[in-house]
From TrEMBL:
Intracellular or extracellular location(s): Cytoplasm
Protein's UniProt name: Asparagine--tRNA ligase
Domain Aminoacyl-transfer RNA synthetases class-II family profile per the UniProt entry, residue ranges: 134-452
Keyword field: Aminoacyl-tRNA synthetase, ATP-binding, Cytoplasm, Ligase, Nucleotide-binding, Protein biosynthesis
Catalysed reactions, semicolon-separated: tRNA(Asn) + L-asparagine + ATP = L-asparaginyl-tRNA(Asn) + AMP + diphosphate + H(+)
Family of the protein in this entry: Belongs to the class-II aminoacyl-tRNA synthetase family.
Species this protein is from: Caproicibacter fermentans
One Pfam family from the record: tRNA_anti-codon
Any one of the GO CC terms: cytoplasm
EC number(s) recorded for this UniProt protein: 6.1.1.22
Molecular function, one GO term: transferase activity
Length: 462
């Protein structure tokens, strides 16, 4: 038995050999005594053509009647076909139906809309677009681990259930092990979570950063790669309620080191995916985003731009006429502003640094101007923000003040403050939204189409 991807890789040595391949029928056609199947097993983008002939296989009539979607295993001879579109085919000697499919199979041989395919998320990995997207997703995940492992980072696992809000933005999903109706209520009617499973209010994590900081203060260089959850009510193409994040955290590193690491990582992941998934990317380039390969090639080989938030605001203010939301110093950047900066002004990925402290999280290091923090967002064409990061506030007194200013419960962050009490050091890190990276790598414009089973506001089917 051999994967179809290996069949192509080793085609030179396989001529005339007998092999077995297993997969799902993408298309099937027959005329009287000769038929053809395009068989795909997901090991690579390309399927293989199976030729079946009456007399050469014992069950010709049964096979000729098969529906698209059927699972089969085929044993036959490899025949090289250098003059044809595909370099080889398999002439079946035995074709075994592993699992039949019915004529109402939801993926017929025509182009289905992405909206329709979202309604059959359990089957859509068998289409060209989604098999390409999810193979690229897999290759990108592997490339990220490789990147950090080769540089001596320790992969740390941070908890998904947590008692603290890492972003201080109040966008957390509550976790409870009891029937809400049976939990005791306080006098004001609020549920008394102190009687809950954990004996306190717990949520799904929005970021592993604060725990990653603890680990960085022991290992120096660490990264997380795991799911995170946000109860944002954003009906956009780039927000999901459950998404994966990569969060490196580095001790003794400042904001410049942080940007250098982010640029290095993005470029090295692009190169790795281009090497590992050329067929998948070629498909995306042809059918999803015509400029994709040129763009990725360019980004993999050039430096990203840099601009401070204050300078970015000066640029944007002159263009306020074209935006739905007008900006001034102090405004949070909306997707339209982010995309204008990266698509029209810089025409490549751009790091925006030093945002006003009011629009960023409490843990970011206060700059000497007392107004801005050492924050950095990476914006890319077509999407906007894909990375958010910062140098962290390592000064205990400043951090305590920031916690108070932002109205956070200091008690819940005792352990976090301890990091500044016992051998604190300057340190920096960032979070890369993995789905947004996959969107960037494939040209796919909706986050629902780069994660197998998307969870977004109002929808968590399957
Ligand atoms: O900018 P964010 O909120 O930063 C943090 O969570 C920091 N604690 C990271 C760190 O410094 N360790 O989120 C980081 C990235 C964003 O740039 C975006 O790419 C992605 O996570 N992201 C989302 N992706 C999909 N759906 C959502 N709802 C997302 N929210 C953030
Ligand atoms: Mg952000």
């Amino acid at each position: 038995k051999i994967d179809i991807a290996d069949l192509y890789r080793k085609s030179g040595t396989l001529e005339g050999k007998t092999v077995t391949v297993c997969g799902w029928v993408r298309t099937i056609r027959d005329s009287k005594a000769l038929g053809f199947i395009d068989l795909n097993d997901g090991s690579g983008f390309k399927g293989v053509q199976i030729v079946f002939e009456d007399g050469k296989i014992g069950n010709y009539k049964e096979v000729a009647r098969l529906n698209v979607g059927t699972a089969v295993s085929v044993t036959g001879t490899v025949v090289l076909t250098p003059q044809a579109k595909q370099p080889l085919e398999i002439h079946a000697a035995e074709l075994c139906v592993e699992g039949a499919s019915t004529p109402d199979y939801p993926l017929q041989k025509k182009r289905h809309s992405l909206e329709y395919l979202r309604t059959v998320a359990h089957l859509r990995p068998r289409t060209n677009t989604f098999s390409a997207a999810f193979r690229i997703r897999s290759a990108a995940a592997y490339a990220i681990h490789t990147f950090f492992q080769e540089r001596g980072f320790v992969y740390v696992h941070t908890p998904l259930i947590t008692g603290s809000d890492a972003e201080g933005a109040g966008e957390m999903f509550t976790v409870t092990a009891f029937d809400l109706d049976r939990l005791p209520r306080r006098e004001n009617g609020a549920v008394d979570f102190s009687k809950d499973f954990f004996g306190g209010h717990t949520s799904l994590t929005v970021s592993g950063q604060l725990e990653a900081e603890c680990m960085a203060m022991a290992f120096g260089k660490v990264y997380t790669f795991g799911p995170t959850f946000r109860a944002e009510r954003s009906y956009t193409q780039r927000h999901a309620a459950e998404f994966w994040m990569i969060e490196p955290e580095v001790a003794f590193a400042d904001l410049d080191d942080n940007m250098a690491l982010a640029q290095d990582m993005i470029r090295s992941v692009i190169r790795a995916v281009m090497e590992k998934c050329p067929d998948d990317l070629a498909f995306c380039n042809q059918f999803i985003d015509k400029g994709l390969l040129d763009r990725l090639n360019h980004v993999a080989n050039s430096d990203f731009a840099r601009v401070t938030y204050s300078d970015a605001i000066e640029i944007l203010k002159k263009e306020n006429g074209r935006f739905d939301y007008q900006v001034e110093w102090g405004s949070d950047l909306q997707t339209e502003h982010e995309r204008y900066l990266t698509e029209q002004v810089f025409k490549k990925p751009v790091f925006v640094t030093d945002y006003p402290k009011e629009i960023k999280a409490f843990y970011m290091r206060l700059n000497d101007d007392g107004k801005t923090v050492a924050a950095v967002d990476l914006l890319v064409p077509g999407i906007g923000e894909i990375i958010g990061g910062s140098q962290r506030e390592e000064r205990l007194d400043v951090l305590e003040r920031r916690l108070r200013e932002t109205g956070m419960n200091e008690d819940a962050y005792r352990w976090y403050l301890d990091l500044r009490r016992y051998g604190g050091a300057k340190h920096s890190g960032y979070g890369l939204g993995f789905e947004r990276l996959v969107m960037y790598l494939t040209g796919i414009s909706n986050i629902r189409d780069v994660i197998p089973f998307p969870r977004t506001t109002g929808s968590a089917e399957f």
